[in-house]
Amino acid sequence: QVQLVESGGGLVQAGGSLSLSCAASGRTFSSYAMGWFRQAPGKERVFVAGISWSGGSTYYADSVKGRFTISRDNAKKTVSLQMISLKPEDTAVYYCAADPTGIYYAPKGYDYWGQGTQVTVSS
């Protein structure tokens, strides 16, 4: 099993940047694909970015390409989401997720979730 804890959320002005981190527990972190999702009030949880177990493959939602960067450090058991040029529409609770079978664009593909961290971008 993997337990996930996100951190790094906060309030930032439009155009600013934030870095989210997800710390994992469990001995097999390096064998899990990881994803970041976000959920705005009244909306469904949607895929933001994903990274393969090795870090060799990354995937992004069109809405964040060129602005967000996902990375992982298997030795430290962390996955990060660097966000720049933030927009008010990026406001949401951000969740990290893990799955041993691969990267999925749908939330139901992931077995393990963190509790989420709030990101608020003011205009």
Notable characteristics:
123 residues, mainly beta
In a nutshell, what does this entry contain?
The protein is mostly beta strands.
Topology as H/E string?
EEEEEEEEEEE
CA radius of gyration:
13 Å
Helix content: under 10%
Strand content: over 45%
The termini sit apart by: 40 Å
Give the overall form: globular
Overall strand count? 11
Count of separate DSSP helical elements? 0
Largest sheet data: 7 strands, mixed
Specify the structural class.
mainly beta
Q: Quick check: average pLDDT?
A: 95
Unreliable stretches (pLDDT < 50, length at least 5) are none
How would you describe this structure to a colleague?
This protein is mostly beta strands. 0% of the residues lie in helices and 50% in strands. The chain has no helices and 11 strands. The protein has strands at residues 3-7, 10-13, 18-25, 33-39, 46-51, 58-60, 68-73, 78-83, 92-99, 112-113, 117-122. The strands form 2 sheets. Strands 2, 4, 5, 6, 9, 10 and 11 form a 7-stranded mixed β-sheet that branches. The relative contact order is 0.31. The mean pLDDT is 95.
Give the topology.
Blueprint: E1 3-7, E2 10-13, E3 18-25, E4 33-39, E5 46-51, E6 58-60, E7 68-73, E8 78-83, E9 92-99, E10 112-113, E11 117-122
Parallel strand pairs: 2-11
Antiparallel strand pairs: 1-3, 3-8, 4-5, 4-9, 5-6, 7-8, 9-10, 9-11
